[in-house]
Amino acid sequence: MLSSTLLQSPIAWIGVGKMGLPLITHLLNAGVVVHIYDPSTERAELSRTLGAIVHSNIQSLLLQSKYIFSSLPNDQILLDVATSQHGVLPLAQPGSTFTDTSTVSVSASEQVATCAKQFGVKYVRVALSGNPTVAKAGQLTIMASGDQSSYELILPLLRLVGSNHFYLGNQEQARLMKLVINLMISVSAGMIAEALALGRKGGLDWQQMLEVMETSAVASPMVKYKTPVLKDRDFTSTMSAIAQTKDIDLILDAAKIHGVPLHLTVTLRQMYQALIAQGGGEDDYIAIVKQVERSAGLKVDGVI
């Protein structure tokens, strides 16, 4: 249940893409007044049909609320939206809180933090573990860092979009934790792909292989989530191979900064590059299965 203060306070939201739209849907369903800005007319109209109030520019949006959220595709767009002359931080009302939910690098987030301090805006980093389907179900795991008092203030809103919540520290801990989780997801996808290719090449039945996997000791939540779509050879994207590769690049950049060798992740980066080169960039990241199958001389169509 939201506090009366937050219920009575409108929210400003920038970016209603694959993750942003389900997030604002939960807020709207709870009775929160949400003002949004997105450069995509299509996404803005989708938000309007859900009950959001659409603005044509950030300046107009920021006049509506001191609680500002964003969900953006990459480092450069975050920096443009947050720190440019006509961006959030220079134009925000005094005493505002800026909460960003994007998957971005630690270095980009640090630049936003410096700018936020300059303009007296409280900055909360919120990293989300889960894809758009999980977001629609309100079951995201939420990792936060930054100004703790601001985090506690917005926590009732975050509870509407996620089932698990962790405050990790007052700086960039949430950004790094998201990369740690994404590293495990990426390498797990590669592990699944190689295991399935080995089994197929050795003559194991595709359906039986997956049935055993999802009931065995390796049946992690990720394995259980992916086995149903793999049984159908359904590679419709929940998170594309291109997006996963972007995250791997962020992981490798962080590893370089901290001096950590990531041999498996480096190899996986090349595997995803091969998948993209073969035309699978818009497929789900688990389509790395197809890339390994091709390398093993297996056909990738008509398996089931």
Walk me through this protein's architecture.
- The chain has 304 residues and is α/β, with parallel strands linked by helices.
- It folds into two domains: 4-170, 3-Layer(aba) Sandwich (Rossmann fold), CATH 3.40.50; 177-295, Orthogonal Bundle (N-(1-d-carboxylethyl)-l-norvaline Dehydrogenase, domain 2).
- It is 54% helix and 13% strand.
- It has helices spanning 4-7, 20-29, 41-50, 58-62, 75-83, 88-91, 106-118, 132-136, 148-158, 173-201, 206-213, 221-231, 241-258, 263-280, 288-295; strands spanning 11-14, 34-37, 53-54, 67-70, 97-100, 122-129, 140-146, 162-167.
- Strands 3-2-1-4-5-6-7-8 form an eight-stranded mixed beta sheet, with helices on both faces.
- Helix 7 (106-118) links the parallel strand 5 and strand 6 (122-129).
- The longest helix has 29 residues, at 173-201.
- The chain is elongated, with a radius of gyration of 21 Å.
- The termini are far apart.
- The mean pLDDT is 94.
Please describe the topology of this protein:
Layout: H1 4-7, E1 11-14, H2 20-29, E2 34-37, H3 41-50, E3 53-54, H4 58-62, E4 67-70, H5 75-83, H6 88-91, E5 97-100, H7 106-118, E6 122-129, H8 132-136, E7 140-146, H9 148-158, E8 162-167, H10 173-201, H11 206-213, H12 221-231, H13 241-258, H14 263-280, H15 288-295
Parallel strand pairs: 1-2, 1-4, 2-3, 4-5, 5-6, 7-8
Antiparallel strand pairs: 6-7
